[in-house]
Design a protein that fits this description.
beta-glucosidase; EC 3.2.1.21; GH; Glyco_hydro_3_N; single chain; globular; about 725 residues
C-alpha cells in the first residue's frame, strides 16, 4: 500500500479501533479466547472488543500457533488489519549465540551481523515479525545485570555493533525478505546508567554527557534504518523516558527525523505513576501520547483513557492518527497486508531451527568471544597427553546460554565436560563438580581434591548462574560466590597448575581466582555451542583473539571505572604514589584490574615504530597513522590493533583516551603487516558547552596498541 491507501484505511477506522491498534497484549489474550479476559487479567480492564482490535502480540512464537492466532484474529477483524508478532530475540532464537557483551568482545561486526541474520531467519519462520533488539545502552557499571545485553562501555564500538545488528535483522527489504525481522533499538535513552547499578533506578546526567556518550549508538541504529525504538524505564533529566517530550518528540522525532514506531517497555506508561510523574492512568496516557509513544505494552492506559482525553479536548485526535499511521506503515513494510502469515511456515521451521549451519556460526562466535585474561607459564593450551581434572559447578552445566535466550533449550547446549571428553583420549579426563554455584559440601571438595591429585593439571569451570545477571539481576558483590572461592583455595593446596574458565554475564571482581589460577579464560555465557568452542580453546585448536569491551575493576568500590574517563585538576602521578592530595584511593589503584580492549593470545605480537604522515591536520587534510605489527610467536593469531585519541585542551574537558578505530590483523608466525588509520577533522569534534559539535584547534595525542592501556604515543596539531 502507498501512503494514500494507508490514510484511507485509517479514515475508515473508528476511534475505538484506532486506539486498540496502539495496544500490545501478550499471547494468552489471543490464544485463550473470552475465558482469558476473566480473573486477574480483568484488572487491566481489557474487553473482548479491545482484544479483537488490538494491533500487536507479545511473546507468541511457533509457526502454527502464529498462523492460528492470525487467522482467528482476521476472521473477526472488520477491516482486515493483521496483527504484528513481536518477541525479545536478543542473542538468538532457538540457536543461541553468546550474550551480546561477549559478541562485543569479538570486535567482529561481520560475525555479529551474521548472528542477527540467523536469529531473524529462525524467528521469522516461527512467525515473529519484530525483535526487541539490539540493546545498545552504554554501560559503565557491572553491578547492573543487564550489562550482559550490551556491547560495552564505548560509544564508537557500540555504534558499530548497533549498525551490524540492524543490518543482520532487517536485511535490505523487509517486504522482499520474509525471513528478516524489523529491529527495535532499545532502551531510549540512557537505561545503562542507573544509580548504584540497580535496575530501573534513576538516571541523572548532563545533556552533554547524554549526547556525547549515550545517544550515539541509538542514532547509529536509526541511521542504519532501524524501524522501531523502545522507551526506557528510567528517568531522563527527572522525567520518565516514556513521557519525556523533549527526548521523544524533541530529539528522536524532530531533531533526528525518526518517523518509525515508538513502543513503551513493559508497563512503562503506567509506571509513570510510581515514578511520581502522573497521578493516575489518565495522566500517564496523556503524557505518553504527547511524547509520541505509539504502542503501549501491557497496560490499558490508552484504551481506557484516550477516548475521554480526546472528547475533553486535552488530546488532539491527530496524535492518535499519526501513531496508528506509523503502525500501519510498519505492517505494510513487513508485507503483512499482502501476506498476513508472512514467513510463518511449520515445514521451514522444522528445517531451519537449530540446524547445523546455524550452530556452526554459534560455535565460531563463541570461539571469537572468549577472552584470555591470564596465561602464566603458557599453561594454555593444555599440553598433549596431560591428564586433566575438570572441576567446578560448570564442568557439566548446561546453564551456559545466558539471560534472554528466547526459545533456546539448556539441554541442547554443548557442555564443557562432554566436549572435552570427545577431544581427549580415554582416561585423560576426570570430572568432579567440586561445589554448587553458591553452596559447597565437604564431600564435594574431598572428591575434587582426589580428582586433582590424580591429574597433571586442573581446569576450573566456575561462574554465575544465568539468573545472577540479566534483567533484575543487579548485584553489589560481583566476586565469584564464596563457595567457589573456597573450592579454589582448597585446590590450590594441591600444588597442581590451574586454569580457570569463567562463565558469567558481567565483568567480575576476579580476586580469589585471577591471583590463584595460572591461567584465566573469560567465556561469558557462550551459547548453544559454548562447550565445544571453549574445549577447542583449551586444547589449542582455537587461538583466542577476543578483547574486553568493559573494564574489569579491582573491586566494586572503584565502580564506575572505565577507560574513557576525564582527568582531574589533581591527577595522580603513578611514580609518586605516596602523594596524598591528589585524586586517588588510599587502598586501591585508580586503574581497573583489566582495561578496555585487553586480551591475550597463544602467540605474541611486536609493534614497530608509530608513524604519522605529518604533524598537522586540517579540515581538508587528514592524517595517516600506521604501525607495523609482527607475529613473533609460533602459531597464527589475530591481533586487534586499536587507535585512541586525546584532545589535550578543549573548551570542555576531554576524555583521556577515546577509541576512534581498530584493525584486526590475521598473521601467520613471523608475518608482519601494517595497521593503517586515517584521522579526519570530523573525528575530533565533540559537544561543546552549548551542545554544538565542533573541533578545537590545538594539540592532540594519538595512541595505538593492543588495548587502551599499553600503547605507543605521538602528537599532532589541528590547525
Amino acid at each position: 500500500m502507498d501512503n494514500r491507501q494507508l490514510t484511507e484505511l485509517l479514515n475508515q477506522m473508528t476511534l475505538e479501533e484506532k486506539i486498540a491498534q496502539l495496544l500490545q497484549l501478550t499471547a494468552n489474550f489471543h490464544e485463550g479466547g473470552e475465558s482469558q479476559i476473566t480473573g486477574p487479567l480483568e484488572e487491566m480492564g481489557i474487553t473482548e472488543s479491545m482484544v479483537t482490535a488490538s494491533g500487536s502480540v507479545l511473546g507468541l512464537s511457533g509457526a502454527q500457533s502464529v498462523i492460528d492466532v492470525q487467522k482467528s484474529y482476521l476472521s473477526k477483524s472488520r477491516l482486515g488489519i493483521p496483527l504484528m508478532f513481536m518477541a525479545d530475540v536478543v542473542h538468538g532464537f532457538k540457536t543461541i549465540f553468546p550474550i551480546p557483551l561477549a559478541i562485543g568482545c569479538s570486535w567482529d561486526t561481520e560475525l555479529a551481523e551474521k548472528s542477527a541474520e540467523i536469529a531473524a531467519r529462525e524467528s521469522a519462520v516461527s512467525g515473529i515479525h519484530v525483535t526487541f533488539a539490539p540493546m545498545v545502552d552504554l554501560v559503565r557499571d557491572p553491578r547492573w545485570g543487564r550489562v550482559m545485553e550490551t556491547t560495552g562501555e564505548d560509544p564508537y564500538l557500540n555504534s558499530l555493533f548497533a549498525r551490524a545488528f540492524v543490518r543482520g535483522y532487517q536485511g535490505g527489504s523487509l517486504k522482499d525478505e520474509p525471513e528478516r525481522l524489523a529491529a527495535c533499538v532499545k532502551h531510549f535513552a540512557a537505561y545503562g546508567a542507573p544509580e548504584g547499578g540497580r535496575d530501573y533506578n534513576t538516571v541523572n546526567m548532563s545533556e552533554r554527557n547524554l549526547r556525547e556518550q549515550y545517544l550515539p549508538a541509538y542514532k547509529a541504529a536509526l541511521d542504519e534504518g532501524c524501524e522501531m525504538v523502545m522507551t526506557s524505564f528510567n528517568t531522563v533529566d527527572g522525567i520518565p523516558a516514556t513521557g519525556n517530550e523533549k527526548l521523544m518528540r524533541g530529539i528522536l522525532r524532530d531533531e533526528w527525523g525518526f518517523d518509525g514506531v515508538l513502543i513503551s517497555d513493559w508497563a512503562s506508561i503506567r509506571e509513570m505513576i510510581a515514578h511520581g510523574a502522573a497521578e493516575d492512568d489518565g495522566e500517564a496516557a496523556y503524557r505518553a501520547i504527547r511524547a509520541g509513544v505509539d504502542i503501549e505494552m501491557m497496560t490499558p492506559c490508552y484504551v481506557q483513557h484516550l477516548p475521554g482525553l480526546i472528547e475533553s479536548g486535552r488530546v488532539d485526535e491527530a496524535l492518535v492518527d499519526e501513531a496508528v499511521l506509523r503502525i500501519l506503515r510498519l505492517k505494510d513494510k513487513l508485507g503483512l497486508f499482502d501476506n498476513p502469515l508472512r514467513g510463518a511456515d511449520p515445514e521451514r521451521e522444522r528445517e531451519v531451527l537449530f540446524c547445523q549451519e546455524h550452530r556452526n556460526v554459534s560455535y565460531e562466535l563463541a570461539a571469537r568471544s572468549s577472552v584470555l585474561l591470564k596465561n602464566e607459564g603458557g599453561l594454555l593450551p593444555l599440553a598433549s597427553g596431560k591428564k586433566v581434572a575438570l572441576i567446578g559447578p560448570f564442568a557439566q552445566s548446561d546453564d551456559i546460554l545466558g539471560w534472554w535466550s528466547c526459545v533456546g533449550v539448556k539441554e541442547d547446549a554443548v557442555k564443557l565436560g562432554t566436549a572435552l571428553q570427545e577431544r581427549l583420549a580415554e582416561g585423560q579426563l576426570v570430572i568432579a563438580e567440586g561445589s554448587g554455584v553458591v553452596s559447597v559440601e565437604q564431600s564435594q571438595i574431598d572428591a575434587a581434591i582426589t580428582a586433582a591429585q590424580d591429574a597433571d593439571v586442573i581446569v576450573l569451570a566456575l561462574g554465575e548462574d544465568s539468573a545472577m545477571s540479566g534483567e533484575g539481576g543487579s548485584r553489589t558483590n560481583i566476586r565469584l560466590p564464596e563457595a567457589q572461592l573456597e573450592l579454589v583455595r582448597q585446590l590450590k593446596k594441591t600444588g597442581k597448575p590451574m586454569a580457570a574458565v569463567i562463565f558469567n554475564g558481567r565483568p567480575l571482581d576476579l580476586h580469589g581466582i585471577i591471583d590463584e589460577a595460572d591461567a584465566v579464560l573469560e567465556a561469558w555465557f557462550p551459547g548453544s555451542e559454548g562447550g565445544a568452542a571453549i574445549a577447542d580453546i583449551l586444547i589449542g585448536r582455537v587461538n583466542p583473539s577476543a578483547r574486553l569491551t568493559m573494564s574489569f575493576p579491582h573491586s566494586v568500590g572503584q565502580i564506575p571505572v572505565y577507560y574513557n574517563h576525564y582527568n582531574t585538576g589533581r591527577p595522580m602521578n603513578p611514580d609518586k604514589t605516596e602523594e596524598r592530595y591528589v585524586s586517588k584511593y588510599i587502598d586501591s589503584p585508580n586503574d581497573p584490574l583489566l582495561p578496555f580492549g585487553y586480551g591475550l593470545s597463544y602467540t605474541t605480537f611486536e609493534y614497530g615504530e608509530l608513524k604519522l604522515s605529518g604533524n598537522e591536520i586540517t579540515a581538508n587534510q587528514p592524517l595517516q597513522v600506521s604501525v607495523s605489527v609482527t607475529n613473533t610467536g609460533d602459531r597464527a593469531g589475530i591481533e586487534t590493533v586499536q587507535l585512541y585519541i586525546r584532545d589535550v585542551a578543549g573548551e570542555v574537558v576531554r576524555p583521556m583516551r577515546e577509541l576512534k578505530g581498530f584493525v584486526r590483523l590475521e598473521l601467520a608466525p613471523g608475518e608482519s603487516a601494517d595497521a593503517v588509520f586515517t584521522i579526519t577533522e570530523e573525528q575530533l569534534r565533540y559537544h561543546h558547552s552549548d551542545l554544538t559539535q565542533a573541533s578545537d584547534p590545538g594539540t592532540f595525542q594519538v595512541f595505538v596498541g593492543p588495548n587502551s592501556r599499553d600503547t605507543l604515543a605521538e602528537s599532532f596539531r589541528l590547525v
